[in-house]
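chain below, 268 aa
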Amino acid sequence: MITAFIESNPSDDSCPALIVDNLSAGYPGQPRAIENVSFAVSRGERIAIIGPNGAGKSTLFKALVGLISHSTGAISLHGQDCRTSHTGIGYVPQHETIDWNFPVNVRDVVMMGRIRCIGWLHWPRQRDWDAIDWALQQVGIFDLRRRQIGQLSGGQRRRVFIARALAQATDVLLLDEPFTGVDMVAEQEIMETLDRLQSNHITVLLATHDLNLAATRADRLLILKKRVIAYGKSDVLQPDILQAAYSDSLQVFQQGDQFVLVADKHRH
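prediction:
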């Protein structure tokens, strides 16, 4: 029964999981923080989105899940227009505002991801608890389900929020800077979680400043600076493309077949 939470989504690999076509979006005073962004993602792919601070990575994610409106373009999830399907995309923002001393356990936090499925003023059903346990198994912290959230490590907390996004019965996840502020052990735990999700055909788009991780652990890279600078395999990381994306914030030098990147204070 639990596996149905993924199988309920279309499984036709010939249909892209996500299509973004000519998307422009922004905020009051900055109506086009991103402009004419287009790309498609196959089911089960892991896409790394890279670019300097202010490039529009978070804006893109917010537009994909409907937190901000888009002025031009279209978004489709499994072939369905975003106006009916964008709530089927799981989103883990860069920063979560939460009182870690609040007396709530891991299972309760993940249940928050089921609100849309449960409905307001309704109690969780057995199906909802099954979805929670499935999500916790996917991220490898099922054994921590009754632990108070303040007792978790940084990497475990990140995985709780990934589980919360999964619990809404989605197979497309957006992760905004999931490795920021975690140590190497936590980073490895999160990567193992992403590998497990990919083995279950869950599509992941992650925004990151880590070019090495993007080049070695993603299927494709989307280089963004308000517009799409490049989209493809790791070989898109060429000096001219990186220079166009990062301009003054990154200097690129070539030594034989190797590239030396000198970043600014923002840790690109």
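The domain at 4-96+172-263 is CATH 3.40.50.300 (Rossmann fold). Residues 1-10 have pLDDT under 50 and may be disordered.
thats it, cya
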